[in-house]
């Protein structure tokens, strides 16, 4: 029986994208493919379909980042690594062994994250000795302790990476505040589908402004499902701003 991936993409999935290739990025450092951990893939089969989709787009390495949130997704480093091992084994027996698979996490800036930092708990980072830690915030409410958490991360030897800042409405109309965040040493990660207006017109405008200002350090697909990879293929790859962001000195290829 054909997989859902094959039904969804058809024979075109086996061919590289003609317009713009994402292969120069090498690595996607933000996705939710590990099965059964959050609002991303629910099963190994779904994970494998998403692996195939991202491989067909040119990626050769995936750093998967399940949510860690005190209220909803109480994932632990051990549990995330266990899910990674299972997916690596499944990928190897399904002819996907050439795709390099690693894990980190997307930490939600809440009181539980603050407790982890105060307790000195090890965080799931990526980038080897660079120790990049991906974190997100509420989309609407600006965290009162944002600067404190950034300082704690830096003091603990981590390099903070703010996930998809273009999606936080509290930055909309306050671009200078986002500039200050980056000036204070926080790397900024853009969601590629923001360039196609997938999330909202306002997120698209902020994303474009970030690209124009050279304020993008990393890009990620933030893949949760095949709708995200299909949007990448049919819309984002045709975006003028995708070409612009790929011309920036992004860190993806060094991961």
From TrEMBL:
Q: Which reaction does it catalyse?
A: O-phospho-L-tyrosyl-[protein] + H2O = L-tyrosyl-[protein] + phosphate
Gene Ontology molecular-function annotations: manganese ion binding; protein tyrosine phosphatase activity
Protein family membership: Belongs to the metallo-dependent hydrolases superfamily. CpsB/CapC family.
Q: Coiled-coil segments, which residues?
A: none
Please state what the protein is called: protein-tyrosine-phosphatase
> What InterPro entries has UniProt attached to this entry?
Caps_polysacc_synth_CpsB/CapC, Pol/histidinol_Pase-like
Enzyme Commission number(s) from the entry: 3.1.3.48
The family database entries (Pfam families) matched by this protein are listed as:
CpsB_CapC
Q: Does the keyword Hydrolase apply?
A: yes
| Alphabetical UniProt keywords | Hydrolase
């Amino acid at each position: 029986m054909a997989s859902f991936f094959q039904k969804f993409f058809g024979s075109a999935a086996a061919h590289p994208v003609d317009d713009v290739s994402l292969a120069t990025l090498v690595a996607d450092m933000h996705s939710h493919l590990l099965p059964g951990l959050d609002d991303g893939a629910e099963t190994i089969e779904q994970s494998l379909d998403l692996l195939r989709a991202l491989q067909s787009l040119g990626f050769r390495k995936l750093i998967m980042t399940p949510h860690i949130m005190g209220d909803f997704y109480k994932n632990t480093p051990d549990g995330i690594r266990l899910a990674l091992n299972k997916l690596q084994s499944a990928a190897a027996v399904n002819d996907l062994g050439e795709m390099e698979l690693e894990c980190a996490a997307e930490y939600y800036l809440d009181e539980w994250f603050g407790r982890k930092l105060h307790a000195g708990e090890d965080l799931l980072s990526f980038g080897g000795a660079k120790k990049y830690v991906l974190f997100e915030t509420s989309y609407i409410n600006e965290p009162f302790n944002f600067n404190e958490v950034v300082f704690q991360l830096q003091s603990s030897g981590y390099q903070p990476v703010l996930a998809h800042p273009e999606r936080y409405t509290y930055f909309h109309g306050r671009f200078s505040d986002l500039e200050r965040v980056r000036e204070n040493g926080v790397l900024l990660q853009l969601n590629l589908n923001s360039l196609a207006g997938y999330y909202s017109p306002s997120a698209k405008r902020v994303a474009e402004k970030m690209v124009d200002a050279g304020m993008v350090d990393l890009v990620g697909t933030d893949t949760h499902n095949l709708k995200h990879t299909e949007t990448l293929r049919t819309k984002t790859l045709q975006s003028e701003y995708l070409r612009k962001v790929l011309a920036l000195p992004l860190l993806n290829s060094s991961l």
